[in-house]
Amino acid sequence: MEDKVAIVTGATSGIGRATAVLFAKQGAKVAAVGRNAQALAELELEITGAGGDVKTIEADLSLGVEPVEMVVNATLDAFRGIDVLVNGAGILANGTIETTDVEDADAMMNINVRSVFLMMQKCIPYLEKKQGNIVNISSVAGTRAFPNVLAYCISKAAVDQLTRCSALELAPKGIRVNAVNPGVVVTDIHKRGGMDNDKYAAFLEHSKTTHPLGRVGTTEEVAELIAFLASDKASWITGATYEIDGGRQLTCAR
After folding, report:
1. Contact between 68 and 89 (Cβ < 8 Å)
2. Is 218 strand, coil or helix?
């Protein structure tokens, strides 16, 4: 990743934050995108304090084309190019086919899919110049069905198909597109989705039994896979959706 320019959305927490930190450690110039100004400032302090190069960009990608274009232009102003795009912005809300609030469903499709589509679309001309690549952060929920997270599963399945279709279309331009599909990873996404501390602790404990390797994952583990897919070591990999889930996709619903 030395001297490569990487945009990372959802960089203020979870897998996106771990990816931004790892990329900077590996020598990348990181455009870190998020909605939380304080979290962005803390991330900037951590990266620059370790000698890394980061441009923090406060943007709400749910608002459509304008903030997406602002992110791309701010990155180009700071670093004069784009080599890697990591789409990590995402939200989760609970609900079944009968109980899911339509506003929640729309919000998940907007952030989890539409913003990914727009970021990819607006970055393509600059990725082509660098023969760059895209890594989308999906979920095991994109490949398997789980109860009470219906709209989230739909949104991540859409990300997987977006990854495959765009990989096929962009291959002639030399742009690779891949996705990672984590199982349960310790982040704040479930708490932001409505779980309190006690329920989240119980969920993590139960997840030890639903993942064959007997534990949940860490953001750093997923970031390592993202870094590999974004690197030249993965130069012949495109259109892949990589499970990194402790074997979760191998199990029946339980």
Report:
1. no
2. coil
Burial of 230 (0-12, 13-18, 19+ CB in 10 A): buried
Catalytic residue, candidates 126, 152, 200, 242: 152
Give the model confidence (pLDDT) of 79-117 as tens digits.
Answer: 999 999 999 999 999 999 999 999 999 999 999 999 999
Residue 16: which of 107, 83, 116 has the closest Cα? 116
Is 152 among the residues known to form the active site?
Answer: yes
- pLDDT, one tens digit per residue, over 76-85 is 999 999 999 9
Distance CA 151, CA 193 (A): 12
pTM beyond 0.85: yes
SS3 77: helix
Q: How far is Cα of residue 189 from the mean position of the Cα atoms in its chain?
A: 12
DSSP-derived secondary structure letter, 84: E
Report d(CA 203, CA 185) in Å as an integer.
11
Q: What is the DSSP string of 133-188?
A: EEEEE--GGGTS--TTBHHHHHHHHHHHHHHHHHHHHHGGGT-EEEEEEE-SBSSS
